[in-house]
Specification:
mainly beta
């Protein structure tokens, strides 16, 4: 048998559910709580800091959650349930004062509220759309027509007809009729008397208007009126009498989707959907078009792009565009561009130049990317999930996109897992595309990424907690040598400072601000990185405590508390590679050892489980530095681990594991073994 050595250049290929001999050289079976970064390698995700307990019961189960950023120092997370809306400040979890925020008829829903609303924001206003609400016009106005004339030349003097309304009939066709009203000096274009000119605001989207820091008012909008013409020359918007499915902003216009119609309001007049003149059509008039198709179409979402607006339905996609690039009533056109199945409840998101959407099967969901091309060209589609078939469950109900960090996340409110897909593109080359997952302390009700800041709400012990963290924020050398453990660089969950330490019955009790969860492993660490073993948890006197093992008194220490967050990478079986994408899966291969190149890291464990056995050999948790100063953070900037294996390549499973509060960065690996082709004839 010949000795052989091959290298795994990095771990940035992410998860693949393909057979191990078909995986790319840098792909693995599973990544839990990892974060692939092209600079530092596959790292442990940052821990989530506990901000506040925001809800103490289950009243917000299946709520519709949204995020609102007013400024760099003022962000909010909100939830809508039937008849009520509530918001919390992200920085401290404080409840926001919302005037008229409860007992609102417009917010009434039947059943699950999660998919019943759509929310968009504009400066100091948040527009809330109820998909179940049928829109309507208000009651008709009183008034009467003073007379009808054939042309303007036949009108009487304006001065003697103040407030009188005349109809100018022109020809026999109704399309060229219009109305004028005297103001005592001249005749001005007006609307037909005794018709509805206003949209019923109680049936249209409401708004949350910011009135100050931590203060909002929930109220009906004031919608534009039909000031000229009649229902023929200035018709009702096509959404009247129907429900609204989606709202968006494009070309300085507010847009709605309703059944197979897309309706854009007047530019720079957000809530106006009527024309300004019945005599002549102008470019700023509303755009109201129907998607023509041979099959029934219900538009469910829209994504504005450079070429126009991509419109999605459950089985077909369209592009709303104009040849000039400016959407006007005369030039706007809708054409069909593709026929992919799209989940109607999970709205597509845009990440840079790609629009990501999903469709679901019985037990899992597929993820696709759409890249729009030049004017008139069909878009390109990419099956983003082709390497992870059946990896993403069909229970996911939301997609979040982070354009700055080039990733999407998918999650459902009934599970703790979030599934991510991250890319790195340099020029025309895609240098990284990786699937991975995070497991949070509770079922994920909401998740969002905003300028490297992660904001999440999870269900925890019968209530809801607000958690945040910062991406791309590994400890620096100065922080490591300062003998201080910065709160933003910890790598466990529910991170919080102890609410108070007491010494009772020869035991140190560390008070925690959150609930006790027996399914999670409690964790206590001091500023210098000293980990204190927790022997039990205790609820006493209305407070929750972690009880430290041993009789030492730690009440003088500054302690951080939380629950362990395990980082796990499941390695695939190793095969000899004979070139790009070519593996030798028939040879006899013994893996002698594996060597892992580690970046900035603390302790690591390597678990080797022989095939068919329940026990596993544990190498680690080994401190990878040669020595550590007392009270110093035990991290080293680089190291090399050698793991003995001495097994056939397919007769064991290896897992890389860490649940310490310190960073982990996997850079590359190399394996050594004995390779034989003796029993196979080869050409």
């Amino acid at each position: 048998m010949a000795n052989i050595t091959q290298q795994i250049p990095d771990f940035l290929g992410g998860v693949s559910t393909q057979p191990d001999d078909q995986k790319e050289i840098n792909q693995v079976k599973e990544i839990i709580n990892g974060y692939p970064d092209p600079t530092v390698g596959l790292i442990k995700r940052p821990g989530l800091k506990f901000i506040a307990n925001i809800v103490s019961d289950t009243s917000y189960d299946n709520a519709h959650w949204f995020y609102y950023r007013y400024s760099s120092t003022e962000q909010y997370v909100g939830a809508i349930i039937s008849t009520a809306v509530k918001m919390w400040n992200v920085s401290n979890g404080a409840a926001v004062t919302i005037t008229n925020g409860t007992s609102q008829g417009y917010l009434t829903v039947t059943g699950n509220a999660h998919n019943q609303f759509h929310v968009i924001s504009k400066q100091d206003q948040i527009i809330v759309l109820n998909k179940a609400k049928v829109t309507a016009m208000s009651a008709a106005l009183s008034g009467s027509l003073s007379g009808t004339v054939a042309s303007v030349a036949d009108l009487p003097a304006a001065g003697s007809n103040n407030n009188n309304v005349y109809k100018i009939s022109n020809t026999s066709a109704a399309e060229d009729d219009y109305y004028v009203k005297s103001d005592g000096t001249t005749w001005n274009e007006s609307h037909q008397p005794n018709i509805a000119i206003s949209i019923d605001a109680s049936t249209m989207p409401y708004r949350l208007r910011r009135t100050g820091a931590n203060a909002f008012t929930f109220e009906a909008n004031t919608w534009g009126q039909r000031l000229v013409g009649d229902t023929t020359t200035n018709p009702n918007p096509s959404f009247i009498g129907k429900t609204l499915n989606f709202s968006f902003f494009a070309n300085n216009r507010l847009g709605f989707l309703s059944e197979d119609n897309v309706i854009l309001g007047v530019p720079n007049d957000t809530y106006n959907f009527f024309s300004k003149s019945a005599i002549v059509q102008i470019d700023s008039d509303p755009v109201d078009l129907t998607c023509g198709s041979q099959r029934p179409v219900t538009l469910t979402s829209a994504v504005p792009v450079q070429q126009g607006i991509v419109l999605f339905s459950g089985s077909q996609q369209f592009m709303l565009f104009s040849d000039t690039g400016v959407l006007t009533p005369a030039q706007a056109v809708i054409k069909s561009i593709s026929s992919y199945e799209v989940d109607e409840d999970v709205h597509p998101v845009e990440t840079g130049t790609t629009i990501t959407f999903i469709n679901k099967s019985t037990s899992y969901c597929r993820v696709f990317g759409m890249q729009t091309q030049g004017q008139g060209a069909s878009p390109l589609f990419i099956d983003l999930g082709k390497f992870v078939s059946q990896y993403i469950p069909q229970t996911v109900s939301s997609i979040v996109a982070d354009t700055q960090n080039s990733f999407i996340g998918l999650y459902g409110q009934s599970a703790k897992e979030i599934y991510f897909y991250r890319t790195y593109v340099e020029g025309d080359q895609q240098l990284m595309r990786a699937w991975y997952s995070w497991k949070l302390p509770g079922n994920v009700q909401f998740f969002n990424s905003d300028k490297d800041k992660i904001v999440s709400v999870v269900k925890f012990q019968g209530g809801l907690v607000l958690l945040t963290t910062e991406l791309n924020n590994l400890p620096t050398t100065s922080q490591i040598t300062a003998n201080t453990l910065p709160a933003e660089n910890l790598f466990f969950d529910m991170i919080a400072s102890s609410s108070g330490n007491t010494y009772v019955s020869n035991k140190t009790r560390v008070q925690v601000p959150f609930a006790l969860d027996s399914s999670l492993t409690p964790f206590v660490v001091s500023d210098g990185g000293l980990q204190l073993k927790v022997e039990s948890t205790l609820a006493s006197g209305g407070n929750n405590y972690f009880v430290i093992a041993g009789s030492n008194n730690y009440t003088s220490l500054s302690l951080k508390v939380g629950y362990k967050m395990p980082f796990e990478v499941q390695m695939p079986h190793i095969y000899v590679r004979r070139g790009e994408g070519v593996t030798d899966h028939t040879a006899y291969l013994i893996i002698s050892r594996m060597k892992f190149s580690i970046g900035l890291s603390g302790n690591l464990s390597f678990k080797v489980k022989p095939l068919g056995e329940s026990n596993q050999n544990l190498t680690g948790a080994v401190q990878i530095v040669d020595y550590t100063n007392l009270n110093a953070v035990p991290l080293d900037e680089s190291a090399l681990f050698t793991i003995p294996v001495l097994r056939r390549n397919t007769s064991y499973d290896m897992t890389i594991f860490s649940d310490t509060p310190f960073a982990v960065a996997l850079n590359s690996a190399m394996w050594e073994g004995n390779y034989s082709t003796k029993y196979y004839r080869r050409l």
